[in-house]
What does this fold into?
Amino acid sequence: MKSLYIDYFKKLLGDENVYDDKAHLIAYSYDATRCRYEPDLVIFPRDEQDVSSILTYCNKHKIIITPRGAGSGFTGGALPAKGGVILAYEKHMNKILEIDMENMVAVVQPGVINMDLQHVVEKVGLFYPPDPASEHYSTIGGNVSENAGGMRAAKYGITKDYVMALRVVIPNGQIIRAGKRTIKDVAGYNIAGIIIASEGTLGCITEITLKLIAKPKLSQSMMGVFSTVNDAMNAVYKTMSAGVTPVAMEFLDNLTIQAVEKKYNKGLPCEAGAILIVTIDGNLDIELKNQLKILETKFKENNSINFKIAKDKKEEDSLWFARKNASQSITIYGSKKLNEDITVPRNRLPELLKQIDIISKKYSVKIPCFGHAGDGNVHTNVMIDGSDEEQLKIGYQAIEEVFKATIALKGTLSGEHGIGLSKAPYMNLAFSDGEMELFRSIKKTFDPNNILNPSKMGL
It folds into this structure.
């Protein structure tokens, strides 16, 4: 990067907030994909006005900017694929600005850690439900940019369901407000809805206003064991159509069960086709008892061979251990995991998993599956030898077929990880030429010089 540019940023932000040394460039070159793209510069804005000044300057000189939270994404959304500047929020713009008890609203900066917000609001009896697996280190700004979900999505929804308003700096440096701090708002276009899940390609978020809800007083967890994955998937949508909406309803297929048991020896039923792990909540004992009764009935109607209710916190943690350790356990099947988060309507889950089994056999690869059965979101993992180029090629062929099967079942390429770099080549499977052109025109309207996070989402 030209020394003239670096000098400008140092004058604006101070030397302590501008870095071009090798250590910083490497530290900000990767995310959970393990792909690496080094930026030319890493800068830490102190406030919204800094972000505006940075974007104004970069837009004038056509310097590429990649906004970044914690770098925990699985699709390369925060990778500087074209070099340029990393705009890192975690050093300064990481504050919870307000908890409004009367209106049940939180106002935060983008660098706030998800779990930190959860802890703060729960201390005053409120609840922020979105809980991505990365909740202990991912930022709210990153969650908004990727529209993150989590295990509680089955009942409580995902990030977009809690974003009331945003403050955003667009590439020309202008600061815009998107949304309002009101329950109802039908004035103007839904700009906040366009910014959410845009992966930092349209603007840089500087402030987020979030809806909070009252925290339920009671919860209960249980596990159902099924002989076949088909029975388990049928139990999912039949239970929910009977009136039970679990906080979380997670599943593990046989390959995943065996992997967890081999790695941790927890006494899991290795002969099972699948297990479902469920948490329900409410404010009255009678609510939980009614839900448990329906769950047990519907599970048995769909051939559950065991139904276990956790009696205390220790048993609850034991039930959830397998799901929370599934991802690292399945590495016994291969050194490289091609991990996708496809999603279909709940009633299509049995057919989707049947198609995945067919694809697994066709390509002679193991594809353990687990995930958020309550909202139709399946984490599909094609396991291969990462050092074998032929295996890698076969793995990506299998992934493409998984995507095609998902789209044929009225599903989507991603339920929560986003598109980023890794799924960009598959966008044409899910969207028509006309739809992709509309996406490009929106991008151009916000960012005519294409300085914000280029190459993401196939744009």
